[in-house]
Here is the input.
Amino acid sequence: MNEQITDAIRVRNSRAREAALAALGSVVVETTDLVEFQSRGRVLVIGGPEALEFATRLDTPLQAQVLLIEGEELPGVPVISQAGRSLSISGYLGAFLLQLGEPGKSNAESLRADLILDLGAEPQLAMPMKPPGYLVSATDEPSLNRAVEQLKGLVGTFDKPRYFSYDPSICAHGRSGKIACTRCIDACPAEAITSLVEKVTVDAYRCQGGGACATVCPSGAIRYSYPQPRDTLEQIRLLLKTYRQAGGLDPQLVICAEVDGVPPSLEPNLIPFQVEELASVGLEVWLTALAYGAGSVLLLDRGGMAARVVEALEQQVTTAGELLTALGFSQEAVQLVNEAALQGIGAGRLTLTPANFSANGGKRQVAYMAIDHLFEQSVRARPMADLTVGAPFGTAQVDEKACTLCLACVSACPGKALMSGQDAPQLRFIEANCLQCGICTRTCPEDAIWITPRLLFNREERNKVRLLHEEPPFCCTACGKPFATRSVIENMLKKLEGHWMFQDGKARHRLTLCEDCRVVDIVQDPDAMAQGVKGETFQ
Here is the structure.
């Protein structure tokens, strides 16, 4: 009897899954811009004697040139010898630039190519995801034959989606000349993201949609564009809703990458959801899927990701587990699994009333909506989750004895978590906005501020404006107008004690005056005016 019930449930779940997958077609995915490549077939083959031999195989529409790393040239093959010179490679399909030697030196040389075939024992470019048009091949006969066909297929005009969008106004990379968050740069397997100190720049031609940058970005400054996060979440919502309406039980979402091919055979209650790359969806997507009714979210790693991408995903999974544990749920509700482990997966870890919110907000807003729903559904939640370093949520604290309320941290904070007082010398803080990027700690001249990763589950507490530090204002000793804090004036007087310009009492007294009174005092002081004429203190 039990076997009959189990078989009936499997049939029921299988039909429900078919209905759910069929429903995905009704979601219209917003289009994105395209990036165009043009390749005329100029191939640069990098290697030793094997490169010379390979170049003779190529004919129209390919035109071969060899960059000889070692060995002797052969007649009839266009060859440039590296000859001990340094080599740097930039560019992408249709626009590669190779620089041999140091620019400006007599032995320097520049080469251009549409395609590069690297036959060296170690590729010249070491990043895990090579630029489009840069091929790496072994030198055995089958591999070389495949390389010929690949090169022939890369001649012409090609389009690919612009996978990302970037909003520098909320980027936590840098402020005031200080660099803080480098998560996107560290995670990108294509090395398509570089620092401009105050912001980053993403090379749309080298970007291949790995998505790890968007996953690790704490603010949502970099977002995946194809598909848009809201389209992805709408697909997941519809998938789970349709599965339940069709009578399916215990839905578990299996997220897998399209680049890994067709999903493996799964138990009927395991619903495959394909994305461009596994790392293109992160914490806010997984938690929203749980809020929408998934019993578990299983990230299927089939071994195709670069080590840095796996590391980034594991950090996100760790944060998800810490949040779920603090909420009173199993941390295994979100797992990174291989194919073998997937076959032994049991029942889903969560059983909740599905949420009905629309995930149309920014990255953090969506994450908080999902967390709030999970908190409301929990009966064992703690007030707060303690998180490990690297989590995008947390608090800030201030050493009141060291802080002078210069407010450098306020102007630097990309998330608007730190604020000044409206009419008083104050430093205020909204925890929900804190990205844990660390730019405040790098900006503070007094080393008076530090950050701690955590998450408050009470929405009101998380969004409340909290006072970190305040001081009574320092009032001008002439007119009584407040113009600074007492600690600022005291520190300034202390630091200028030995300065030759502030040895007399009048000059030191001038530091206690507001800007208007200071000008009046200087004008009325013949000695100060005389120094000003000399160009020493007054302009």
User: Anything to note?
Assistant: Confidence is low (pLDDT under 50) at residues 533-539.
